[in-house]
Write a structure and sequence with these properties.
Distance between the termini: 53 Å
Radius of gyration: 21 Å
Shape: globular
Bound molecules: fe (ii) ion
């Protein structure tokens, strides 16, 4: 069994020399690759090539795509400008929608790994001469390397979504990190007050943040209430048992249309066996635990629950303010707990637990206003459509986020247990269709003051 690392990403600082930054980036690239390969280690070649679900790529496609993306950005684009559309056809996500990727002529694992190694060697050779101060804009502060790192981290989470949907025998993780027991107790449904007023959202960081997180800007928020904890399994069970999935009045028109077509009556991966509700995460099936965050719900389910609870979903501005803004001193933090980089004691991130944690297991994962668990465990649906902030500028390619701006996508915040720490912060924005529930998604509610 290979070693699993939980090294956090140190923040880039102007005081770091180019040589030190090169070493850090090379170590992070190696760590990202170790993790990717560790996740897929238990899979047979057949499992790697199989399309386990129409929503997900064969895992082998993700591996090839990770390498092709690295080749595009860390070698080809650093010697002369290349458009994203010039990514090799087989691994170009826009040329082949996920549902058909199982029909592509994908290589065997050994061959894919050779390609990954060969591209990595060229990327590292180029890194040796990278000029992070006066080089092209892509290289300033090491940005393009962090972009490629985050891309690999994000595909790791995508692979975990696929593995949760695996056909045949369920995926057996190579090892599971033991989660801490709750050290603080919370009453699910309890709310905390945010006084409103001017807050700062987004960031001007150019070393790691994506274009859609920029620029940092000020908004005036009305006062609101927000749940102290994510909605739990226990709370969601009340909704299920009160006939929430049959009560038309709780759903929007679009939500009801989805529900009628999907014909579901509980979150994905919930099942009722002999009168007992169970949940499944990978190969672990157990009775529903009321004090873990509900996971695998779509936006419409989150919205219907919020109406049932006589609440609503927070906007993403409210979410970010509740997660990172200290209204007492007018300061913003990178994480709910401050600016200190993630460590395993701070929040349930980094994949290796393969599970959500009971509420209260991370007593330091509390924001300035007192919201628990805004980073880690489950992504949280917000009420907001995905769009650019005022003054948004696509960089370095519009296919990362700008191509998705619009009302079809809802924003999710905060990362899940399956998110690597280098791929989440209080300004990080994720987005997906409001009908998606194969993702590790939950939510918390808000209410007008
Ligand atoms: Fe990608």
């Amino acid at each position: 069994m290979t070693h699993i690392s939980t090294a956090p990403t140190p923040p880039a600082s102007a005081a770091v020399s180019d040589g030190d930054l090169r070493m850090t980036l090379a170590a992070e690239l190696a760590d990202a690759r170790r993790r990717t390969l560790w996740l897929v280690e238990p899979l047979s070649d057949e499992d790697l090539h199989r399309q386990h679900d129409p929503l997900m790529s064969p895992v082998l496609w993700d591996l090839g795509h990770i390498a092709a993306f690295e080749d595009l950005w860390l070698t080809r684009n650093l010697t002369g400008h290349v458009e994203f559309s010039e990514m090799p056809g087989l691994y170009n996500p826009f040329e082949h929608p996920r549902r058909v990727r199982g029909t592509l002529a994908l290589p065997r694992l050994a061959e894919a790994r050779e390609t990954m190694d060969e591209i990595r060697a060229r990327a590292l050779a180029r890194l040796d001469t990278a000029d992070f101060r006066d080089g092209p804009r892509l290289l300033l502060a090491g940005y393009v390397y962090r972009m490629v790192l985050q891309h690999e981290y994000q595909h790791g989470e995508t692979i975990l979504q696929t593995l949760q949907l695996k056909r045949g025998d369920p995926y057996a993780p190579p090892q599971r990190r033991v989660l801490p027991s709750p050290a603080a107790s919370y009453r699910p449904g309890e709310m905390v007050f945010f006084p409103g007023g001017p807050v700062e959202l987004g960031t001007d960081d150019r070393s790691a943040a994506y274009d859609n997180e920029r620029p940092r800007h000020r908004v005036d928020l009305a006062p609101f209430w927000i749940d102290v904890t994510p909605v739990t399994n226990g709370q969601f069970l009340e909704f299920v048992e009160a006939g929430g999935y049959r009560r038309r009045e709780l759903w929007t028109e679009e939500g009801w249309r989805w529900l009628t077509e999907a014909g579901v009556s509980a979150p994905k991966h919930w099942a009722k066996r002999l009168g007992v509700w169970t949940t499944r995460t990978m190969d672990l099936i157990r009775p529903l635990e009321p004090l873990r965050p509900v996971c695998h719900v779509c936006y419409h389910e989150a919205q219907a629950y919020s109406t049932f609870a006589e609440k609503r979903l927070p906007t993403e501005a409210e979410w970010e303010a509740a997660a990172s803004w200290d209204p007492a001193i007018g300061a913003k933090w990178m994480y709910p707990w401050g600016d200190e980089p993630w460590t395993p004691e701070l929040a349930n991130l980094d994949q290796t637990a393969f599970d959500t944690a009971p509420i209260g297991a991370y007593p330091r994962n509390v924001s300035p206003i007192g919201c628990y668990g805004m980073i880690g465990d489950v992504w949280e649906w917000t009420a907001s459509d995905f769009c650019g902030y005022p003054g948004f500028e696509a960089f370095p390619y519009s296919e990362y986020s700008e191509a998705f701006f619009g009302p079809e996508y809802k924003v999710l915040r905060g990362g899940s247990w399956a998110t690597r720490p280098g791929a989440v912060r209080s300004t990080f924005r994720n987005w997906d269709y409001p009908i998606r529930r194969q993702i590790f998604s939950g939510f918390r509610c808000a209410r007008d003051a």
